[in-house]
Description:
The complex is a heterodimer. By secondary structure, chain A is an alpha/beta fold. Chain A folds into two domains: about 50-115 and about 340-485, Rossmann fold, CATH 3.40.50; about 120-330, Dimethylsulfoxide Reductase, domain 2, CATH 3.40.228.10. Chain A has 19 helices and 22 strands. Chain A starts with a strand and ends with a helix. Chain B has a domain at about 1-50 and about 455-505: Urease, subunit C, domain 1, CATH 2.30.40.10. In chain B, strand 9, helix 4 and strand 10 form a beta-alpha-beta unit. Classes of the chains: A alpha/beta, B alpha/beta. The interface between A and B is large, with 61 and 63 residues.
Amino acid sequence: MTVVKAVTCPVCGSLCDDIELTVEDGRIVKVKNGCALCESKFLGYNSEHRLLKPLIRKKEELVKVSWKEAVGRAAEILAEANYPILYGWSSTSCEAISLGLELAEEVGGVIDNTSVVCHGPSILSIQEVGIPSCTLGQIRHRADLVVYWGSNPWSAHPRHIERYTAFSEGRFERSAWKGYLNKIKASIVRKKIESAIRRVFFKGKPSAPSNIRNEPPSTLQKEGRKLIIIDVRKTRSAEIADYFIQVEPNKDYELLQAFRALIRDQEIDVDTVAGVPVEYLEEVADLMIRCDFGVLFFGLGLTMSSGKLRNIDAALSLVRDLNMWTKFVIMPMRGHFNVTGANTVFTWQTGYPYAVDFSLGYPQYNPGETSVVDVLLRKESDAALIIASDPVANFPKAAAEHLVKNLLIVIDPHMNATAQLADVVLPSSFVGIEAGGTAYRMDHVPLPLKKVVDPPRGILSDEEILRRILAEVRKIKKRRAEES
Amino acid sequence: MELLIRNGFVYDPINGVDGEKMDIAVKDGKIVEKVNERKARKIDAFGMMVMPGGVDIHCHIAGSEVNSGRLLRPEDHFRDFERKTAVTRSGVGYSIPSTFTTGYRYSRMGYTTIMNPSMPPLEAKHTHEELSDTPMVDKASYPLLGDWWFVLEYLKDGKIEECARHVAWIITSTKGYAIKIVNAGGLEAWGFGGNVQSLDDQIPCFCITPREIIRGLCKVNRLLNLPHTIHVHTNNLGKPGNYITALETMKCIEDLATENKPIIHITHCQFSAFKGGDWRTLESGAEEIANYVNAHSHVTLDMGQVIFTDTTTMTADGPFQYTLYELSGNKWVNHDVETETSAGIVPFHYLRKSYVHAIQWSIGLELALLIKDPWKIFLTTDHPNGGPFTSYPRIIAWLMSRKAREATLKKINPRARSRSLLPSINRELSFKEIAIMTRAGQAKALGLKGKGHLGIGADADIAIYNLNPETIDPSKKYRIVRKAFKRAAYTIKNGKIVFKNGEIVKHLDGATMWLDVKVSEPAKISEDMRRRFREYWTVECENYPVTENYLEISQPINVEAKV
Lengths: 484, 563
Ligand code: SF4
Ligand SMILES: [Zn+2]
């Protein structure tokens, strides 16, 4: 039995690197420090859907073949394609991504990562406005105002609040955890009393849920760190917040513009914006101006609600403008553990963070045209390599329909929906568990991923698989050049 | 492989060779006395100039700030791209080229060694990953240490030796090469949106001043025996009147100097040589700085020359970048790094017709021309802050030719022209002086023993330019000079021809140099250190250091510290 310390969790963009794993007989048996998502990944990754042999489609059927045959077939598909796409990349290591870019350049394809279906709009807005940001530790040490907008960290990034924001201990700011415990206790007592009253007077008929946003925001006057959640629904995160603003669906832009007006001291002559009374907004705007260090995290709730680009433009501008008054930063809540790394490696090698088209022999970028979704919707691609992603399950239907008409190569540890429809399936090891590498946290801090246990026999890492395909593609191209 | 470069005019200032016609022999990547003439591959350099490969002491080419710049500016890349060839990778970018392209473009100009000057220690892996993807050149990086909490705390308590041990630890852990100080103390203050205004301002919450930080790290540098000096971006950079701060910074360590050796490098000095009360009354402070530098031997500088072009500014100086955003209204990126430093990025267009920009252009050249000793001032643009490194040949032309300066002077803002000192300066630099300012002097200041010269045993990093000093008068034919430096006839790296006939003929990965600083009692990763680690950073101390596998080719340099 060995204990491996300081393991980086390959699940979400928080990339907690303090996980302790106990390994027995080559199996992980215990996880310390991780959240529920982390535990279920480390303990449950090796499920029955695990792929253990390379597969090739022969006569409509996926059959087991040798690595040599599978890699050869994959290379052949890519080398012969007119316009291949290479997609995924956000759940693998930077080292694998780097090889992917080299491969895409070699075959003149389009390479894209999952940003295209998540924070793509955020990136486009950053390219318009810029972004005042920082590393997460800066927030832990200094932030006395933490705002999450359209994001539910408690469920999607479970340790984010505890490690980096409201409940963390910093040099200049203390954790708000104690206050939260008191609040929870109080609310449990209140709920008990309420239900007792209900039982007595209404014979168990539950009352309508109290509309939290009508509660006067007295909590905002408290000392120390404050946590505000802005969302369309009351999530778990909202329950622990000092203040929850429930914005009407698709009205985020109005609310952002209202804040921008308020911090510029402009009057708003309506009573409510996006369903929120203006007095409350004034209160919050005041807090934003008066804090020592504020941060706005935004999630897909903001990026993907109607307005997309406009929303993020407004959020970035709001935060930028707040810097006239105080220190204020903003950060997208990235989901996949290495989507930031994918953007980063893409950018240093090609100049662009996603949607890169190599068909002319140099990187071209025009999201809306060079993203894989666009290429698929135009039905232009004839081959595809999918790695660490399941686009058949996630892409718009029309795009997925064209995708499966392509000659399709899948690199994944699991039999997912895309793999089932593939022509070549290359089983890979789990990055960050069975293979090492590097990943970038949502704030761009690079962290090493550890190889903790061995993969099943005969299973290769993403990196190794890509290296073999690339070498094979070059051989085929050389042969062809010699023939002609 | 053996190589013989014949009959070139050799400029090797470190070895006292000034344009003499001679052969250079190369074997196994080093300069040797002689090679077997029949077996060696021969380059006929008749009528050409042979110099050591170029060395750049300060250019932002890799790491998180550079990459945020790339991401921020697709418009910088659209029209400037390089296709994949049989030997090269593709890439894009004018002011912030992608990594492969950066390496190829340096090689094209005959440069073989470049220094990336600002590495946030926490993100050092990122810097090294990019450096490993920057081919054709040897490289190194300077960790940003002037606002690191450990430094502030130890120096405040007067624990110089303890500070030195931790600096040794962080330089070695981040695979760094020199101590970089940017706006000492100002970046910590920027954590809450503040800044410092003078060398004697107290840094909020840390009870220490910029003067104490600079002096302290200067002493640490000496204790550790580092090959380069402290590398300083001054306080108040980019503010009118800041030449006084620059002078004070040089003065504040005057008493620490010994044996006439440099102990401080003031980087991109142009940005710290502003006289005048505000932007309207801005003037050049180059003369005052040059006078001081001419009278003292403990300082080296680099220019930070401004080019009239559209570029991208990026420094660790968060508050300065914010001011630049306010002035320009351009898009702005800020990236503060916990416990250590900050960074900012703003696109910027230097215009001939702008009074301020034209004055800045003039200041850079004035500094280079008024400082008499070329071993004290080096040619840089603080790439990409003053302009992209690809404009170096243009600067060489300005330095070598009064006529070239006048041609540009004619086109700049008239008020700036009337204030410029350039019309009163007759000096025109020689090829030897250019060789010092673009390679020999830089290598010497960096303490790079095998670089910047062509003596026996030196690295065979060589540039051959198609220029005949016997027939070309650079003062008149400055355009020809510019063209020749833009595209070397040959670039030789590690004894191999990598660039010729206008093309990269060989893709070669350069080494990453870093200091393995040996102290007698290394800073231990004790329980106390672990605890502080957890308190200060949000990563585990095991995961902090850059392991050697992040360096494509690792070249440690052993340093025996005096502590
Ligand atoms: S918060 Fe995210 S990174 Fe951290 S342990 Fe949970 S799933 Fe892993
Ligand atoms: Zn610089």
